[in-house]
């Protein structure tokens, strides 16, 4: 385990170029935007994180408030609080970065090795004291974020773990899904914390999942066939509703915090979809957009009527759900970028509206789950069988 020393607490210079593959988007509580990007250099992946106080300027480097090049490829990233970002790396390690100087400087706060493979997913507990990470090494690890210390490790699945998600109000509860076709419910208050929610109800393996805000027992799950399902942990997987808005693997899901009945999904088919989840968990598609020209990985809700997405086509799109339109951010002129009015983003939407078009023939050659690493972390704790 490694905690950053005093020598590590230096200010990093902002990179001069944006990595091509945009993987992560996270809204900030004050309206800013966190962007995570990756690029393949030779046989290795490298990543970077960027913060924009004005989201309409993303993904341009000049409009970025703060940015930093990471030591390895980016697996996932999540806000811990208003100034700290948890990053999972291709090396298997994690790092916590702190925004200082009025959000203009990223400083490495703490870092630690952990997994023996690429970190595929991260989640921060509702108490903001702990985090959960999953990786290609089939392990689930829980971290004390105050000192970035590993406090629990388990070999939870029989194959690569695709996603973990913490319960919105219970810090001891979280979910995981993997390529072994299992969905696990975790409760750290129990002697044997992992329980199998039987076999996945989906036609193909689950790829991502997300708890529904305001609902203590319900979550959504996406599959490698493009199918979505709403599940209730009290009913196992016996009773569920499904929809098929995608025709390729779903990479990410996100409920709208302001309106939890809205579920956004993105995936390999370059499509962005918003589904309305009704009271009986029936699902109705209300928005679909194919403006992205490559895999779509990141999405976040700044409000109930707007959605940001990013993809491997180097674009960040703002979707107006009510108007059923989208705009590529970062296309405003340098002169207009200097005008700091509250209506800047609305002006950008009006000036460059994109209609819902057909998917381009160009599809990326790679998948984020196949990123190569250039080093491996050393195990720091004995792995405990999740079924044992």
TrEMBL record:
Gene3D superfamilies membership: YVTN repeat-like/Quinoprotein amine dehydrogenase
SUPFAM superfamilies, per database record: WD40 repeat-like
Any one GO biological process: oocyte axis specification
Primary localization class, coarse: cytoplasm
GO cellular component term of the entry, any: methylosome
Swiss-Prot/TrEMBL keywords: Cytoplasm, Repeat, WD repeat
InterPro entries (UniProt xref): Methylosome_Comp_WDR77 (IPR052139), WD40/YVTN_repeat-like_dom_sf (IPR015943), WD40_repeat_CS (IPR019775), WD40_repeat_dom_sf (IPR036322), WD40_rpt (IPR001680)
Family matches, as PANTHER family: METHYLOSOME PROTEIN 50
The protein's name: Uncharacterized protein
Species of the source: Elysia chlorotica
């Amino acid at each position: 385990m490694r905690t950053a020393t005093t020598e590590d607490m230096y200010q990093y210079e902002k990179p001069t170029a944006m990595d091509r593959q945009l993987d992560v988007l996270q809204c900030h509580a004050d309206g800013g935007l966190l962007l995570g990007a990756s690029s393949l250099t030779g046989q290795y992946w490298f990543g970077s994180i960027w913060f924009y106080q004005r989201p309409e300027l993303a993904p341009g480097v000049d409009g970025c408030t703060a940015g930093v090049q990471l030591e390895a490829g980016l697996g996932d990233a999540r806000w811990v609080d208003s100034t700290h970002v948890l990053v999972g790396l291709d090396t298997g390690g994690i790092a916590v970065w702190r925004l200082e100087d009025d959000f203009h400087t990223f400083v490495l706060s703490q870092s630690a090795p952990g997994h023996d493979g690429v970190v595929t997913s991260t989640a921060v507990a509702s108490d903001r004291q702990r985090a959960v990470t999953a990786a290609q090494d089939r392990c689930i690890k829980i971290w004390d974020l105050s000192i970035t210390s590993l406090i629990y490790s388990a070999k939870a699945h029989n194959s690569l773990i695709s996603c973990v998600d913490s319960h919105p109000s219970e810090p001891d509860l979280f979910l995981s899904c993997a390529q072994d076709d299992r969905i696990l419910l975790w409760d750290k208050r129990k002697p044997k914390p992992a329980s199998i929610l039987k076999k996945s109800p989906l036609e193909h393996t689950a790829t991502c999942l997300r708890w529904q805000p305001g609902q203590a027992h319900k979550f959504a799950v996406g599959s490698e066939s493009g199918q979505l399902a709403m599940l209730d942990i009290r009913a196992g997987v016996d009773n569920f509703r499904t929809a098929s808005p995608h025709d390729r693997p779903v990479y990410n899901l996100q409920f709208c915090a302001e309106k939890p009945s809205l579920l956004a999904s993105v995936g390999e088919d370059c499509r962005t979809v918003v589904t309305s989840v009704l009271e009986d968990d029936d699902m109705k598609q209300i928005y679909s957009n194919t403006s992205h020209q490559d895999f779509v990985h990141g999405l976040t809700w700044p409000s109930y009527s707007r959605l940001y997405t990013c993809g491997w086509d180097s674009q960040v799109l703002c979707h107006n759900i009510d108007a059923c339109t989208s705009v590529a951010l970062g296309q405003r002129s340098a002169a207009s970028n200097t005008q700091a009015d509250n209506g800047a983003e609305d002006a950008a939407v009006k000036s460059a509206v994109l209609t819902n078009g057909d998917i381009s023939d160009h599809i990326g050659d790679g998948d984020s789950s196949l990123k190569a690493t250039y080093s491996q972390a050393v195990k720091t704790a004995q792995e405990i069988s999740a079924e044992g």
